[in-house]
Amino acid sequence: MGTTTETAMGAATQMPAEKKSLSVRVERATKRFKNTKGRADVVAVKESDFTVAPGELVTLLGPSGCGKTTTLRMIAGFELPSSGRILIGETDVTMLPPNKRDTATVFQSYGLFPHMTVEENVAYGLKVRGMARHEIRTKVEATLDLVGLADLGDRAPGKLSGGQQQRVALARSLIVEPSVLLLDEPLSNLDALLREQMRVEIRRIQKSLGITTVYVTHDRVEAMSLSDRVIVMKDGEIRQVGAPAEIYENPASQFVAGFVGKVAFFSVAVTGGGAKEWECRLNDRGMSTCSCSTFARAVAGRTVFAPSPM
Fold it and tell me: By CB neighbour count within 10 A (0-12 exposed, 13-18 middle, 19+ buried), where does 253 fall?
């Protein structure tokens, strides 16, 4: 790694919170994409309905093509829902363009300007807004300190590691003080060690600022370690919403159980038992007593799952 900026900076300076974080409400949002070949429209998101409380970090988790990024893009304003509404706080922003919404997005590809220094990249949004030069400098210094890059402001993005570039992208979004922060698979381009470090940093920064955050990932470890709540999606639909431990211990379906944890599935014949445990026969090899969960009760007689520790 080479520099102290690649490690967690728990003592970094916090930016002053000048604005109150707002809730995000997605109300029965559906997104259809027209099929130009005469076939049926593609429904990317179907009747999505959830609320993110002020200051909460909620993760949209699911496999590729499940609709999680499309949902995030509807919140950001890059896609308009075919039906339904998007509200930020009490304001209906469904038809507003991205620059009229009080949000900031961190993309998977970073999107840094290669001809600008780190400081200039971070300051860009404030310059566009016409802020005074001395105010920009003060805010840039505070923001770079927050993300652990205070000593790298004069560097070009190409001279930074992947983790440092991601922090610049995060700083550029945070400096405009959005009410809602949106992150679209921001760690997917990093190696395993940097992903782990950046998970810690993102959560620390989010909690220190108290900013409402919607995070998109297909990585269950990211979702479970970062989130206040997780929304599991498949085929454009929400399959379960809950705290990480709740979803892991009481998955609502076989898909959720298999996606959020390492599990083994066995077909069994249930021969008796009560609310907490039941007796089952596995492959005609005798009797076993199995612990019962919400999911297992729902499919008793067909499938039992056994999650392993995270």
Answer: middle
- Return the CATH architecture of domain 4-249: 3-Layer(aba) Sandwich (3.40)
SS3 string, the chain, reads: CCCHHHCCCCCCCCCCCCCCCCCEEEEEEEEEECCCCCCCCEEEEEEEEEEECCCCEEEEECCCCCCHHHHHHHHHCCCCCCEEEEEECCEECCCCCHHHCCEEEECCCCCCCCCCCHHHHHHHHHHHCCCCHHHHHHHHHHHHHHCCCCCCCCCCHHHCCHHHHHHHHHHHHHCCCCCEEEEECCCCCCCHHHHHHHHHHHHHHHHHHCCEEEEEECCHHHHHHHCCEEEEEECCEEEEEECHHHHHHCCCCHHHHHHHCCCCEECEEEEEECCCEEEEEECCCCEEEEECCHHHHHCCCCCEECCCCC
Domain boundaries, the chain: 4-249, 262-305
Q: pTM value?
A: 0.80
pLDDT in tens, the chain (310 residues): 444 444 434 444 444 445 578 999 999 999 999 877 767 789 999 999 999 999 999 999 999 999 999 999 999 999 999 999 999 999 999 999 998 999 999 888 878 899 999 999 999 989 888 889 999 999 999 999 888 888 899 999 989 888 888 889 888 988 888 999 999 998 887 778 878 888 888 898 899 889 999 999 999 999 999 999 999 999 999 999 999 999 988 888 888 888 987 776 666 666 666 655 656 666 655 555 555 444 454 444 444 544 444 4
How far apart are alpha carbons 114 and 228 in whole angstroms? 35
